[in-house]
Amino acid sequence: MAKPLKERDGAPKLDPRGRKVKILATVGPASRSPEMLARLFRAGVDAFRVNMSHGEHETHAETIKAIRAMEKEFHRPIAILADLQGPKLRVGKFKNGEAVIRHSGHFTLDRNPEPGDHTRVELPHPELFGLLEKGQRLLINDGKIRLKVIRADENEILCSAEVGGVISDRKGVNVPDAEVPIPALTEKDRRDLAFAVQQGVDWIGLSFVQRPEDLAEARKLMGGYGALCAKIEKPMAVRRLDEIIELSDGIMVARGDLGVELEPQEVPPLQKQIVNKTRTAGKPVIVATQMLESMIESPAPTRAEVSDVANAVYDGADAVMLSAETAAGEWPEEAVTIMHRIARQVESDEAYLPRVRFLDTPPDRTTADALAHACMTVADTVAISAITVFTGSGSTARRVARERPSVPMMVLTPSMKTARRLALLWGAHAVATKDIGSFEEMIAKGKRMALRHRFAAAGNKLIALAGVPFGTPGSTNLMHVVTIAGDELDKHEN
User: Family, per the entry (predicted)?
Assistant: First the structure.
């Protein structure tokens, strides 16, 4: 008698997630132990974010090593995203460590290094002087203090305090109304990026993106290794969004910083716009920041937070991200579990598929795009268990995912780098396996892997999508529907 599939030697230790949207979790003091990382993976995490703003390289290297060890334990490729800090604009210091800016009063930012008081403080960023104009805003301490420029020259920026309050040493400054002439990469970012590439991370998150040119230096330093995710957190980036999407491998909607520089009511429609444009381009898009914020301290989220996560899933985002909830929160495993349950509940809603396909993504005039679109149509028409995609670079998988098919997509690739990168792609269950050399081998391997990874059973139909000649990048030109016979299940389990 054949052994149960879950007991077979070498079988994955987890069933497929049962959802298509991915979960990206930030690693921090609350989650960096190997034991907690494994618990988060079991709870539903598909990819981990290493925040380079905090911690030392030695600590991050231990985290990355632990995640790679988990891959072997769970037989699953796991994506690692190294999130660069980016430049930080800050005020100088105060005589008493802090001061109070009076509402509607005047306050000056200048180049004088002397400690500040309730009337003035140093702004140690010479590039801002002469840049700002009357009526533009300066937001301090995540927007808690709001200043409007009255007059600006090469030495002073005189402001009126629309919202005053307590200001203290080294608080952050946001400049939402101007393109700040500083690069997206600081010296620290360059060191962090070199470390991340040396460690073999899969994605680089680039902060403070304002213009397409900001991506060029990061690309050069990456040296062709890894994928580049542009974080949209500045209003200036929104103005050139199409160009930034074109030059990146993926997009993160960094709503926390966007919410500081924009009015709160502007963020939700902008989130949908960014998701839609990135999806249309066929690239992964991550919705991030404050998704289950209350779970930093509470074992249960608010209903508004649940709706927020659900809306991102309904919009068709490729991934949803947890930040402090898993990095420093008291309930990291519970936060992942809740997010997993929300996603599964949304995707089981009969209204989900029409909603997620509301966006029109017409295929490009290529054979590969036409076949990817056909996969979706066949899966809607015939009782298909899964789409099996054979790819080296992952481009075919991205084409299929762009169509948001109704069935799971199992991606077979000879490249572990590709398999890891696809851990952030909607609906993709990537498997690193030996390359194929013939049509017969493709069909046999597709059936075998579908059984092994629990995407199919005897009598189920699969779609196989590949390119001939095999092993040739960009040659997707073949789609085939196959049925798994009953004796194939016995052969597989024995």
Answer: Belongs to the pyruvate kinase family.
